[in-house]
Design brief:
heterodimer; A: alpha+beta; Alpha-Beta Plaits; 7 strands; B: alpha+beta; 4-stranded antiparallel sheet; two-stranded antiparallel sheet; 6 strands
Protein backbone atom coordinates (compact mmCIF):
# COMPACT_ATOMS: atom_id res chain seq x y z
CA UNK A 1 0.00 0.00 0.00
CA UNK A 2 1.42 3.36 -1.02
CA UNK A 3 0.23 6.93 -1.24
CA UNK A 4 1.84 10.27 -2.07
CA UNK A 5 2.60 12.17 1.15
CA UNK A 6 1.09 9.26 3.08
CA UNK A 7 2.40 10.01 6.55
CA UNK A 8 1.69 13.76 6.57
CA UNK A 9 -1.82 13.10 5.26
CA UNK A 10 -2.49 10.59 8.02
CA UNK A 11 -1.31 12.97 10.72
CA UNK A 12 -3.52 15.72 9.30
CA UNK A 13 -6.57 13.44 8.96
CA UNK A 14 -9.59 14.15 11.16
CA UNK A 15 -11.49 11.54 13.19
CA UNK A 16 -14.14 10.95 10.54
CA UNK A 17 -11.48 10.25 7.93
CA UNK A 18 -9.57 7.91 10.23
CA UNK A 19 -12.74 6.03 11.16
CA UNK A 20 -13.52 5.47 7.48
CA UNK A 21 -9.97 4.19 6.83
CA UNK A 22 -10.20 1.82 9.82
CA UNK A 23 -13.57 0.60 8.54
CA UNK A 24 -12.01 -0.08 5.11
CA UNK A 25 -9.20 -2.10 6.69
CA UNK A 26 -11.72 -4.03 8.74
CA UNK A 27 -13.83 -4.81 5.65
CA UNK A 28 -10.68 -5.97 3.83
CA UNK A 29 -9.63 -8.23 6.73
CA UNK A 30 -13.09 -9.79 6.96
CA UNK A 31 -13.28 -10.36 3.20
CA UNK A 32 -9.82 -11.97 3.09
CA UNK A 33 -10.82 -14.35 5.89
CA UNK A 34 -13.82 -15.57 3.86
CA UNK A 35 -11.51 -16.38 0.89
CA UNK A 36 -8.31 -17.45 2.65
CA UNK A 37 -6.09 -16.01 5.35
CA UNK A 38 -3.92 -13.07 6.34
CA UNK A 39 -0.49 -14.55 7.02
CA UNK A 40 0.89 -11.27 8.33
CA UNK A 41 0.98 -7.55 7.86
CA UNK A 42 1.75 -4.28 9.54
CA UNK A 43 1.87 -0.52 9.11
CA UNK A 44 5.29 1.02 8.51
CA UNK A 45 6.94 3.95 10.22
CA UNK A 46 7.95 6.96 8.08
CA UNK A 47 10.56 6.44 5.32
CA UNK A 48 12.99 8.68 7.24
CA UNK A 49 13.16 6.03 9.99
CA UNK A 50 14.51 3.44 7.54
CA UNK A 51 18.18 2.48 7.32
CA UNK A 52 19.50 0.87 4.17
CA UNK A 53 22.47 -1.49 4.05
CA UNK A 54 24.05 -0.93 0.64
CA UNK A 55 25.83 -3.49 -1.55
CA UNK A 56 29.57 -4.01 -1.38
CA UNK A 57 32.10 -5.64 0.93
CA UNK A 58 31.97 -2.91 3.59
CA UNK A 59 28.12 -2.72 3.50
CA UNK A 60 27.73 1.05 4.04
CA UNK A 61 24.55 2.07 5.88
CA UNK A 62 22.54 5.06 4.66
CA UNK A 63 19.49 6.79 6.17
CA UNK A 64 16.16 6.38 4.41
CA UNK A 65 14.60 3.77 2.12
CA UNK A 66 16.35 1.92 -0.72
CA UNK A 67 14.43 3.98 -3.30
CA UNK A 68 12.79 7.39 -3.05
CA UNK A 69 9.38 7.12 -4.71
CA UNK A 70 6.58 9.65 -5.03
CA UNK A 71 4.22 7.26 -3.30
CA UNK A 72 5.39 6.23 0.16
CA UNK A 73 4.88 2.62 1.28
CA UNK A 74 2.70 2.81 4.37
CA UNK A 75 1.93 -0.81 5.07
CA UNK A 76 1.79 -4.35 3.75
CA UNK A 77 -0.04 -7.64 4.03
CA UNK A 78 0.97 -11.18 3.19
CA UNK A 79 -2.17 -13.05 2.07
CA UNK A 80 -2.96 -16.65 1.24
CA UNK A 81 -5.90 -16.61 -1.19
CA UNK A 82 -6.82 -18.88 -4.16
CA UNK A 83 -5.35 -16.77 -6.98
CA UNK A 84 -4.07 -13.36 -8.12
CA UNK A 85 -7.52 -12.30 -9.33
CA UNK A 86 -8.99 -12.88 -5.86
CA UNK A 87 -6.11 -10.95 -4.30
CA UNK A 88 -6.64 -8.01 -6.67
CA UNK A 89 -10.38 -8.01 -6.04
CA UNK A 90 -9.79 -7.97 -2.28
CA UNK A 91 -7.15 -5.24 -2.58
CA UNK A 92 -9.80 -2.95 -4.03
CA UNK A 93 -11.44 -2.97 -0.57
CA UNK A 94 -8.48 -1.18 0.97
CA UNK A 95 -8.74 2.59 1.52
CA UNK A 96 -9.43 4.17 -1.85
CA UNK A 97 -6.67 6.77 -1.58
CA UNK A 98 -3.99 4.05 -1.60
CA UNK A 99 -2.22 2.52 -4.55
CA UNK A 100 -2.08 -1.21 -3.78
CA UNK A 101 0.46 -3.49 -5.44
CA UNK A 102 -0.40 -7.19 -5.38
CA UNK A 103 2.42 -9.56 -6.25
CA UNK A 104 2.73 -13.35 -5.99
CA UNK A 105 5.49 -14.77 -3.79
CA UNK A 106 7.52 -17.94 -4.28
CA UNK A 107 6.25 -19.41 -0.98
CA UNK A 108 9.75 -20.04 0.27
CA UNK A 109 9.95 -22.01 3.50
CA UNK A 110 11.69 -19.97 6.21
CA UNK B 1 10.75 -4.11 18.17
CA UNK B 2 9.55 -5.28 14.81
CA UNK B 3 11.21 -4.37 11.51
CA UNK B 4 10.37 -4.87 7.87
CA UNK B 5 13.46 -5.88 5.93
CA UNK B 6 13.28 -5.31 2.15
CA UNK B 7 15.81 -6.74 -0.31
CA UNK B 8 16.36 -5.05 -3.65
CA UNK B 9 18.99 -5.09 -6.36
CA UNK B 10 19.33 -3.90 -9.96
CA UNK B 11 18.35 -6.58 -12.47
CA UNK B 12 17.57 -8.83 -9.54
CA UNK B 13 15.57 -11.48 -11.37
CA UNK B 14 17.67 -11.71 -14.55
CA UNK B 15 20.83 -11.99 -12.49
CA UNK B 16 19.32 -14.79 -10.41
CA UNK B 17 18.29 -16.70 -13.53
CA UNK B 18 21.81 -16.31 -14.91
CA UNK B 19 23.54 -17.25 -11.63
CA UNK B 20 25.55 -20.47 -11.54
CA UNK B 21 25.36 -23.14 -8.85
CA UNK B 22 28.15 -21.61 -6.79
CA UNK B 23 26.58 -18.13 -6.77
CA UNK B 24 23.22 -19.56 -5.75
CA UNK B 25 24.80 -21.59 -2.95
CA UNK B 26 26.50 -18.43 -1.66
CA UNK B 27 23.14 -16.61 -1.66
CA UNK B 28 21.37 -19.49 0.10
CA UNK B 29 24.17 -19.57 2.69
CA UNK B 30 23.72 -15.81 3.31
CA UNK B 31 19.94 -16.25 3.76
CA UNK B 32 20.53 -19.13 6.16
CA UNK B 33 23.09 -17.13 8.16
CA UNK B 34 20.63 -14.23 8.43
CA UNK B 35 17.75 -16.50 9.48
CA UNK B 36 19.87 -18.21 12.09
CA UNK B 37 21.24 -14.94 13.49
CA UNK B 38 17.72 -13.47 13.74
CA UNK B 39 16.50 -16.54 15.61
CA UNK B 40 19.40 -16.25 18.05
CA UNK B 41 18.57 -12.62 18.85
CA UNK B 42 14.79 -12.57 18.37
CA UNK B 43 12.12 -13.95 16.07
CA UNK B 44 11.73 -14.32 12.33
CA UNK B 45 8.00 -13.66 11.97
CA UNK B 46 7.54 -13.78 8.21
CA UNK B 47 9.36 -13.65 4.96
CA UNK B 48 9.17 -14.65 1.35
CA UNK B 49 10.71 -14.10 -2.06
CA UNK B 50 8.70 -12.17 -4.64
CA UNK B 51 7.97 -13.05 -8.22
CA UNK B 52 9.14 -10.68 -10.97
CA UNK B 53 7.73 -7.12 -10.99
CA UNK B 54 5.79 -7.81 -14.20
CA UNK B 55 3.69 -10.41 -12.34
CA UNK B 56 2.37 -7.63 -10.09
CA UNK B 57 -1.02 -5.99 -10.48
CA UNK B 58 -1.55 -2.54 -9.06
CA UNK B 59 -4.91 -1.27 -7.86
CA UNK B 60 -4.88 2.49 -8.33
CA UNK B 61 -6.47 5.09 -6.07
CA UNK B 62 -9.94 6.52 -6.65
CA UNK B 63 -13.49 5.26 -6.54
CA UNK B 64 -13.10 3.22 -9.78
CA UNK B 65 -9.94 1.44 -8.50
CA UNK B 66 -8.33 0.94 -11.95
CA UNK B 67 -6.05 -2.11 -12.17
CA UNK B 68 -2.76 -1.88 -14.09
CA UNK B 69 -0.02 -4.43 -14.76
CA UNK B 70 3.30 -4.07 -12.95
CA UNK B 71 4.46 -2.61 -9.66
CA UNK B 72 3.33 0.69 -8.12
CA UNK B 73 6.70 2.28 -8.85
CA UNK B 74 9.41 1.39 -11.37
CA UNK B 75 12.69 1.56 -9.50
CA UNK B 76 16.26 0.80 -10.60
CA UNK B 77 16.55 -1.75 -7.82
CA UNK B 78 13.90 -4.46 -8.03
CA UNK B 79 12.29 -5.61 -4.81
CA UNK B 80 13.04 -9.32 -4.56
CA UNK B 81 11.98 -10.35 -1.07
CA UNK B 82 11.18 -9.30 2.45
CA UNK B 83 11.29 -10.38 6.08
CA UNK B 84 9.39 -9.27 9.15
CA UNK B 85 11.62 -9.69 12.21
CA UNK B 86 11.34 -9.00 15.93
CA UNK B 87 14.67 -7.88 17.41
CA UNK B 88 15.83 -5.84 20.42
CA UNK B 89 16.55 -2.63 18.49
CA UNK B 90 17.17 -1.00 15.12
CA UNK B 91 20.96 -1.24 15.42
CA UNK B 92 20.73 -5.02 15.83
CA UNK B 93 18.39 -5.32 12.84
CA UNK B 94 20.81 -3.28 10.68
CA UNK B 95 23.77 -5.35 11.89
CA UNK B 96 22.03 -8.62 11.00
CA UNK B 97 20.85 -7.24 7.63
CA UNK B 98 24.53 -7.12 6.63
CA UNK B 99 24.50 -10.94 6.61
CA UNK B 100 22.13 -10.93 3.62
CA UNK B 101 23.60 -11.28 0.09
CA UNK B 102 26.05 -8.40 -0.41
CA UNK B 103 24.78 -7.52 -3.88
CA UNK B 104 21.44 -6.39 -2.39
CA UNK B 105 20.40 -3.11 -0.86
CA UNK B 106 18.63 -4.05 2.35
CA UNK B 107 16.16 -1.58 3.82
CA UNK B 108 15.37 -2.00 7.51
CA UNK B 109 12.34 -0.06 8.70
CA UNK B 110 10.43 -0.12 12.00
CA UNK B 111 6.76 -1.09 11.85
CA UNK B 112 3.99 0.21 14.10
CA UNK B 113 3.07 -3.28 15.45
CA UNK B 114 -0.58 -2.90 14.54
CA UNK B 115 -2.95 -5.56 15.82
CA UNK B 116 -5.41 -6.92 13.32
Amino acid sequence: MAEADHFNKWEAADDAHRERVYADFHAFDEAVKTRGSIVGGDALDRPATARTVRPGDDRPVTDGPYAETVEQIGGFYLLDVPDLEAAVELAALLPREYTVEVRPTLEVAM
Amino acid sequence: MRFLVLLASPDHFDRWDAADEEEREAAFAAYRAFGQAVRERGTLLLGDALHRPDTARTVGPGDARPVTDGPFAETVEQLGGFYLVDLPDHATAVELAKLLPDDCSVEVRPVLEVDF
